[in-house]
Amino acid sequence: MDRQLPFIFEDRTGHNTGSDFDDMYDRMFYHISRQPGHTTTKIYEMPIRASRHRSTLPLDRDPIVYLEFLPDESLGNVSFMKPPNQATIPMSRYLRKTSLFGSSLSRKFMGSDGREYKWSYRTVAGQEWTCTTAENYIVAHYDLKQPGVPAYNVSGNNLTIYEPFAHLSAEILASFIIMRHIAQYRL
User: 43 CB contacts (<8 Å, ≥6 apart)?
Assistant: First the structure.
């Protein structure tokens, strides 16, 4: 019996503009940052888990994704920098509403694998955000910390990406950050 272990990324702060997403099993690590006074959020693939020591070091790598929001925080462009899927796309075209008059918190995007994926807000019990395939299989979900459960040096929130979709983790994380931005600014 082949059991696949999902990637469970601890969201260190729960903030869109400054956090770390570290897999609980130390397989993948991402750093999200935005300089104060700027509107571009950058996503970095990191070689090690976040720590007080790593956080004091200068970033010695280039971002793999740029999320360029406009000065009023409306949607700008998303730029994927990691070969072979390098592209810059307007966010409104990358994450399209699922229906003309539907909620802006239900949007779909085309993955680099050519498949369509959809993010939706609070449509599955216990999940704040859910990403599914066009066939409605769960790809990823974001869960908030349960009330009363202690969290030490992290927000207690987790982004789970199922292993068959791990190759899309940067795209899933980027689209998720954009979706949270849309919710935060009511776009």
Answer: 30, 31, 32, 63, 64, 65, 66, 67, 170, 173, 174, 177
Mean pLDDT across the chain: 89
3-state SS assignment for residue 125: coil
Q: Which residue has the tokens 């959020």?
A: 41
Instruction: State both tokens at 67.
Output: 């999320």
Q: How far apart are CA 151 and CA 173, in angstroms?
A: 22
- 128's enclosing H/E stretch is none
If residue 119 lies in a helix (H) or strand (E), which one and from where to where?
Answer: strand 116-121
Closest CA to 104 of 159, 4, 173, 183: 183
pLDDT in tens, 133-149: 999 999 999 998 777 77
Q: How far is CA 104 from the centre of its chain?
A: 17
Cα–Cα dist 34/74, whole Å: 16
* AA identity, residue 38: H
pLDDT tens-digit readout, 24-44: 999 999 999 999 999 999 999
Q: Read off the tokens for 129.
A: 């955000």
